[in-house]
Amino acid sequence: MEKTMKCLRCGQTLKFLRRENLQLGKTGWITGDWGNLLAGALDVAILQCSGCGKLEFFKGDAFEEQDEGPAGDLAQVTCPNCGVRYDCDYPKCPVCGTENTIF
C-alpha cells in the first residue's frame, strides 16, 4: 500500500526521500561524546515536498506494509484517520491517538 501525503505548507505531494537513523544524545564538556554512544538512535522515514522542499519526519516503519502475522496473533484494526494497522486491544491508535471504535 503506497501512502500519498500532501505538504501542509504548499499542498504539493510529499515524496519518500529515505529512511535514516538519527543520533540521540548530546556532547558534553566533561563527558565528550559518551552521551551519544549510550543514547542510541531514532529510526525515521524522511519525506520531502516536491514544491517547497520542506522535510517531514515520521516513525521509520510508518510507510511499510503491515504483514498478516502468524496464526495466534491478535487481530488488527486499521486506523480510519492515519491508516496504520495496530492490535485491536489498543484503546487508541498508537500513532495519531484516534479512538478505537471497537471498544
Explain what you see:
Helix content is 6%, strand content 32%. Mean pLDDT is 77; it is low at 66-72. It is flat, with a radius of gyration of 18 Å. The chain is mostly beta strands. It has one helix at residues 34-39, and strands spanning 5-6, 13-23, 41-49, 55-59, 76-78, 85-87.
Rg (C-alpha, Å) = 18 Å
Helix content: under 10%
Overall mean confidence score, pLDDT: 77
Structural class determined from secondary elements: mainly beta
Q: Report the portion of residues in β strands.
A: 25-35%
Q: Biggest sheet, open or closed, and with what strands and sense?
A: 4 strands, antiparallel
Distance between the termini: 27 Å
Pattern of helices and strands: EEHEEEE
**Strand order across the largest sheet:** 1-2-3-4
Principal-axis shape: flat
Number of β-strand runs: 6
Uncertain segments are 66-72
> Helix count?
1
Task: For this entry, give a set of tags.
single chain; 103 residues; mainly beta; 4-stranded antiparallel beta sheet; two-stranded antiparallel ribbon; 6 strands; 6% helix; 32% strand; flat
